[in-house]
Design a protein that fits this description.
Blueprint: H1 3-14, H2 20-32, H3 34-74, H4 76-81, H5 84-89
Helix pairs in contact: 1-2, 1-3, 2-3
Bound molecules: zinc ion.
The site of zinc ion (ZN) has 6 residues, from helix 1 and helix 3.
Amino acid sequence: MKCTEVRELLGNYMDQELTESMMQRIERHLLRCPACAYEARSLEQARQLLRQGVETPMVSEQLGERVLRHIAEHFPHLQTAHQPEELFSLPLLPGDFEE
Ligand SMILES: [Zn+2]
């Protein structure tokens, strides 16, 4: 199996979207080929960071949006009186309340 083929399939390999024989071929290649093994490792790390980066802020954003809408509906006067960032900083950090 060529390096270029392995690189193309690395993403699918990590998602285990390949047939078992394909998975094994890539695995064998990674064991013999440090360059592709390194590539696989970096890709794995990048994907982990991406997952963390996507999950955490998105939850906050959705929460923030809900709070924003709530404030706009119920406290229209607060919108202009305060910076939204200041209003959201406390409710979005539940750790602050556990002390
Ligand atoms: Zn290779």
